[in-house]
Specification:
Arc Repressor Mutant, subunit A, single chain, Heat Shock Protein 90, 556 residues, five-stranded mixed beta sheet, Methyltransferase, Cobalt-precorrin-4 Transmethylase, Domain 2, alpha+beta, four-stranded mixed beta sheet, 39% helix, flat, 20% strand
Length: 556
Amino acid sequence: MDMDKRELKTLLAQGETLTVEFKSDAKGLPDRDLVATVVAMANTEGGRILLGVEDNGAVTGTQPAHQNIAGLVALIANRTSPPVTVRAELLAHEGKKVLSIVVPKSRSIVSTTEGQLLRRRIMATGKPESVPFYPHEFIQRQSSLGLTDPSAMPLEEISVEQLDLLQRLRIRNAIKKYGGDQNLLPLADEELDGALGLTVEVQGQRQPTVVGLMLLGTEELLRRHLPAYETAFQVLRGTNVLVNEFFRKPLLETFEAVELLFNARVTEEEIQVGLFRVPIPNFDRRAFREAFVNALVHRDYSRLGAVHVRLDDDGLTISNPGGFVEGVTLDNLLVADPRSRNPLLADAIKRIGLAERTGRGIDRIFAGMLRYGRPAPDYSMTDAYTVSVRMQSAETDPAFLRMVIEQEEKSGDMPVDAMIILSCLRHERRLTASDLIAATQKPEQVTRTAIEKLVEMGLVEAHGAGRGRTYTLSAKMYRQAGQKAAYIRQAGFDPIQQEQMVLAYIAKHGSIKRGDVADLCRLSPPQAYRLLKRLKEQGKIQQAGERRHAVYTRNA
């Protein structure tokens, strides 16, 4: 899609990022430098080059030689290996020409035809730069793209005899404890190793794989052959570090040690639901297990750094080196096809029983937070180098939990989609279907079906019709929570009442802004916009200014 003037202005104002690069052409940018920048972007996350822009965002324009778009696209393709196909367009800005070059993220390692291998990174100053792409980083890159499995690589420098035989017993006990693949239990040790991919035959000899080293290796072997393998467990109180433990033990032993430390800090209260007492933990154990196992299994073992589990005054944070794998973003986290950076390791852990066999462990993490009325897990601190999930230790909502349990007694486990919708409405008061579709990340029809089911169950109420249709929690839910007045505030007012409130506000204060309308009538910004538009069309108000600066007054 072509870039418009508004988008260009926004990019210029934001400055350079990992995916946006300004290049001056005032003195004529050498083709070699331009191609090198394309290569660096293709080897990272892709992005956009704005040629004719200084580092500070000032537009100085492009040279005539770079305004031949077809020729420039061909030049870049001919001087990259494998060829990179870019999209380019000339944009006018304040009487000067800017060349926008969109670079796709490559699914293979790209170099210039002169042999330059580069990638992009963010410096300590926050500015991007292009740096050499070293051979030891190739596996990391291919793993992220799903082109290789580093966990399946044989380690020919280690013999099977060096492995810790007691760890096999730990694997068998874990299969029994966590309900893993029971077909593994009757197997002899050598067969078990083969079934889980812990060893492979290399030239007629059994050799441990990286997975085999993780599960069966000694601390000494792990330290020597997998230096990035490390897990940290920390407990902070304010600025004081109460616990700071580091582990290089085999994976199952590490998991058990960290889980023991975590469980010792889980506290529980109880509420009465019908005839039963239901425990309410400060942290859901299943959500912790899935998040921690995900960090161990999906981390980038070619990148130095530990898996961190940190408990502080406000909650729990679990982070691991390596960003999301290719195709997974914050916007599709809940729906992206499950895929691991280390497929063999992921499969072994699932068969042992530590991880969700369906590959939808992320649903369990969300459910473990939402069913207690707590905020959804927060992945917003994730970047290209680290995946980080934050689970707040906010107070539970007993009424919300009671509702979830009662519904599950009637119709089985409540779907995660339903809990996300209810949680959003609980925190945001009134939302449109579009708002809820964005929250669930599911296709429109799937989310609308989930909403209508909640309406049928009496948990959600619909207001209005057509595009202006909105949803709130039902009177029943507020009544159960002892918040009858809150329901009146949430449900809001009918359109006629809303119009009268806006007009009364203008009569008293002289004018009104869209934000004022949203607060006054308890509407979302799009709903407030539609209300003001309706009053304009009726000739009752007039508008001065545009967008955020728009002010509305009564017609004379």
